[in-house]
Amino acid sequence: MNASVVVFPGSNCDRDVLYALGKIAGIPAVPVWHKDPVLPEDTDLVVLPGGFSYGDYLRCGAMAARSPIIQAVREHARRGGLVLGICNGFQVLTEAGLLPGALLANSNLEFICSPCLLKVERSDTPFTNAYPEGTLVQFPIAHHEGLYFLPERELQKLEDNRQVVFRYAAADGSAGAQHSPNGSLNGIAGIVNSSGNVLGLMPHPERASEKLLGGTDGLGMWYSIKSWLEGGAR
Amino acid sequence: MKFRARILVSLKEGVLDTQGKAVLVSLKNLGFDVVEEVRIGKSIEIVLSAGSAEEAEKKVESMCEALLVNPLIETGRVSLEAIG
Amino acid sequence: MDYRKAGLRPHEYETIRRELGRDPNETELRIFGVMWSEHCSYKSSRPLLKLFPKEGPSVLKGVGENAGVVDAGGGWGLAFKVESHNHPSAVEPYQGAATGVGGIIRDILAMGARPIASLDGLFFGRPDSPKTRFLSNGIVKGVGGYGNCVGVPTVGGKTLYDERYEDNPLLNAFCIGLVASDSIVSSQTAEPGNLVVLLGSKTGRDGIGGAAFASVELGEDTKASRPQVQIGDPFVEKLLIEACLEALEKGLVTSMQDMGAAGITSSASEIAAKSGVGMILDLDLVPLREENMAAWEIALSESQERMLLIVRPENLDAVLSLGQKWDLDCAVIGKTVEGNRFILRKEGEVFADLPASLIGGGCPEIHWPAERPKDLDQRQSFEFEPSGFPGDLSQPLLRLLASPSLKEKSWITRQYDSMVQVNTVQGPGAPLSLIRIKENGNLVAMTMEALPWACSLDPYRGGYETMARSLRPLWVAGARHLGMTNCLNFPSPENPEQFWEFSEAVRGLADCCKDLSCPVVSGNVSLYNESAGRAILPTPLVCSVGILPVSGFPLLPGKWKEGDFLFLAGIENASIPGSHFQAVLQGRLVGRPLPPSPEMETGFMERALQTASRQIADSAVPLLGGGLGIALGKEAIASGVGAQIDLQIPTHPLALFFAEGGARALYAVPEARVPEFIRTWTGFPFRMIGRVGGDCLCLPQSEPIPLQILSNAWKGA
Fold first, then answer.
1. Which residues of A are marked as active site?
2. Tell me: domain C555-717, CATH 3.40.50.10140, correct?
3. pLDDT digits (tens, 9 = 90+) for A59-75
4. Is the pTM of this model over 0.90?
5. A98 touching B (Cβ < 8 Å)
6. Cβ A16–C234 below 8 Å, yes or no?
7. Which CATH number, 1.10.357.140, 1.10.10.10, 3.40.50.880, 3.40.50.12280, labels domain A3-230?
8. Are residues C149 and A213, on separate chains, in Cβ contact within 8 Å?
9. What is the pLDDT of residues B44-84, one digit of tens each?
10. What is the DSSP string of C519-576?
11. Is A95 within 8 Å of chain C by CB?
12. Is the ipTM of this complex over 0.85?
């Protein structure tokens, strides 16, 4: 069981994810430079971390999505390997076409750093099998472009396919657009591809992985991945 | 030959333009009641060399496809000018 | 070129001629004009800064480097410094603030440290003026835009509104970094025969003369100053951080300097002078962004995101390939030689040939005359006037909670990434910020404090109280202080009354540091914060840093539990003069703040540390702005539970609840620990003042305030 964390120029959560995987979850993880054409041979999980790859210039994630490593990530995903994009990593995945949609500027046009309640809409993915369906979890968000957008018809298809995995929610368990801190359509915080092995989400599970730092709801994601890779959750 | 290409990138119809909306409200607050719509895009300028204007335009269009424009949310309009 | 046009004074020009034995040429004159400006030379403040104690057992590297370094335990050091970017932020708020953040981050990087947290000090004018809205929005977005992108969390700060900052807002940026104690980088370690390497962005004309700009009063025509403001690129800064840290880790760097004010000239001549070597720079080798730049423009450009590396020839190839890896410009621009000569060449021609030590260290000090303000006695005479405030305490409490300087500031802190690097234990909005050091498990505690109102009434007492108040939150949380850094924001020193205030405030800070054994490890001075005769309040700002050992758990505020007993530790009679109550609700500053009491401070420190380490209390908060009343209000809001306060003493209730100053804290103690709390605090003034419970805050002889009302007032809902 091995994870590769891709480092783009401007990534700034790469070390955080390496720490969460390696030191907290016990999933061996190595950094991989974006100019590398291949992933380490035994990679099971690829993480595209948060940050401001290429300064978020042009469009968030646009230039990172054209990095040499992305071809290898694409190939890894095609073979059924796990790919997780967090925050900027989610933006990269949409720009690379590995996930549908685009992430636009927050509706208040401001950067928002805040804890957020999320509803886990699916517990049958490699990333969320440790959470009972409908669980509320608290992960922080920290982004300027987190408004998930997809044209209406495709959005409906996304919902019909049950590809929405995390939705912004309130303490009473309701979830949806009315709870989006950033104007995200349908309250979408995270989605999977149709085969379920590629997940992108704006909130940061690695920032909710230690009691000392205020919360451990993110641990479920690491344990989900671990048990999936160990074969227990399949 | 050298060319200067200008690419006007704008959000597609139907894509929420939050910046445009904010500017619309600000303009109205400043008393410009005549304003009905504001759309905000970006302009990209590229200087390149090519054998002909057609070739230059083709090259710029493939740049748009490869990186500069995200077709899901944006459209790009290319204009070209020979600069010697 | 006339020396006056370069900004030099007659005796300074004479000094240059005497030291050189000749007239300086134009390039040299321009170099001296910038390097001997107030901003670079500290010529007006150097005599005062000698008052600060700089040594202590915790100090690994003191004043004289880019930032001081203190011992964080387990072979790790903390490099930290606070710096102003006031003038640029007044003219172009977004870029001024952004480049302020970028500059202080490079100061920390220059010590070989990875920047791990930032704090920001914001001083704005009238809260409701369009100008303040424009400046505060721009400055906050600039701080966030830069810090968020570069991946350094902004974990706290200080925000104050007063009309005297209307035309001269202040932005003070603090950064702290972590460095292995045996890997601290110095600017004193260059050797003859090394190569001088420029790493980072290309050099343009931006920011030329910025240091000189920061050394005069802002003119009416500030728009004309715009070209002098630099543009920040946090993306390149992030690459620069990673490239420099990788180069250091691989042992490729002999010495290093960041490039801030006065660009290449300042950083290169500083390394040469401090290391005792000469230097020859070929300015044609500097990667340029603009054409036809003159030698002096290249030498003095303040283009951002550049570092100067001193490299042994055998390491050059490795450094160049690191530049390539991180997509940064990287060029050899010169070499170090034996001797003391600093030579700038372009296309073979020598443009400057100066003794390196003269450039940065040769400017004569200026001893400005100081004069006690004539109206001070009048301002200091005071008798408490409670008129206009009927006995009920609820109304003044709600009004203070809703006042711009005390109310909740999530509109600011939400725009800052306070969590990146996954170390933030206590982020913005608390009396102190706490981050965890993964490498040794210890917690770093940080505060930022400034009391301009108190300083304007009595700069000595105000300075002393500022320093003490920056330390008390550390002790209450259970952290021992390691050191402080300061940013001295004042108006022009050329006005004798203003210089007196400056001197007295520094004396107050310094005496407190001596009394409480807190070394001053770094700092910055920003003078001339005035325009059109309107001067800022004397604003010495202090950031203190402490450490909480791995075994301890911090004692934090906002954790009241139903049934807890509330204790006020410290005296009941604090000071209305200089308080938020006086400045905001009464609208005029008169009287004198409390005189210092070192015995009270040390007595408080010992007991507060014991209370925290033995975990005697559930919740604790030092009394800061707004005094006991605001502390009770905020604790109730944060804890989500009310309290019944029963406090009958001869002091006027308004003074009792809203006076400020002195070593004081509010503790919430569970019933079972009350005897231990009393034992701990015996020998120091303390008093039980009430009990936690219910959903109202009930102050004596006052209408009970429901929590929801309290919270709405504070949040402006």
1. 87, 204, 206
2. no
3. 999 999 999 999 999 99
4. yes
5. no
6. no
7. 3.40.50.880
8. no
9. 999 999 999 999 999 999 999 999 999 999 999 999 999 97
10. -EEEEEEE---EETTEEPPPEEEEEEEEEE-TT-----SS---TTPEEEEES-S--B-
11. no
12. yes
